[in-house]
Amino acid sequence: MSDLRVVTEDLRRAGESLLTCYEEFRSAQDTADRGAEAVEHARLADALREFAAEWDDRRDEICHAIEGLGDAAVGAAEVYEEIERELVRALRGEL
User: Fold this and answer.
1) 4 within a domain of the structure (yes/no)
2) How do residues 62-86 score in pLDDT, each as one tens digit?
3) 81 domain-assigned
4) How many domains, the chain?
5) N or C: which end of the chain has fewer CB within 10 A?
6) Tens of pLDDT along 4-14?
7) For the whole model, what pTM was predicted?
8) Is residue 18 included in any domain, yes or no?
9) How many CB atoms lie within 10 A of CB 22?
10) Alpha carbon 87 to chain centroid distance?
11) For the segment 19-45, what is each residue's pLDDT rounded down to a tens digit?
């Protein structure tokens, strides 16, 4: 049987970093669409608007994935820590 070792502090920090990335990524909206307003060439402006619309959909998908990973990592750290506390209590006969 192999040992499972999890450094929950690292796992929690990774999750929190992912959630920070999620917030930054989510707030980076409408950049391409605003850029289209500054472009005088009609076809280029239309291409930028089309890209912006498609990018909004993709950004939403990526945001949900990043948020889910961040929440899962933080949640896993909490569960591992609770399991460890329960094991310590059990070994001490406190349950």
Assistant:
1) no
2) 999 999 999 999 999 999 999 999 9
3) yes
4) 1
5) N
6) 788 999 999 99
7) 0.73
8) no
9) 20
10) 30
11) 999 998 888 766 666 777 777 888 988
Q: What CA–CA distance (Å, rounded) separates 34 from 55?
A: 13
Dihedral sign for Cα 79, 81, 85, 91, please: positive
| Domain contains 13 | no
The two structure tokens encoding residue 81 = 């820590």
Range of the domain at 59: 30-91
Residue 47: is it exposed, middle or buried by C-beta count within 10 angstroms (0-12/13-18/19+)? middle
Residue identified by tokens 């500054």 is 38
Listed in sequence order, the residues at least 6 apart from 25 whose beta carbon sits closer than 8 Å to its beta carbon are 59, 62, 63, 66
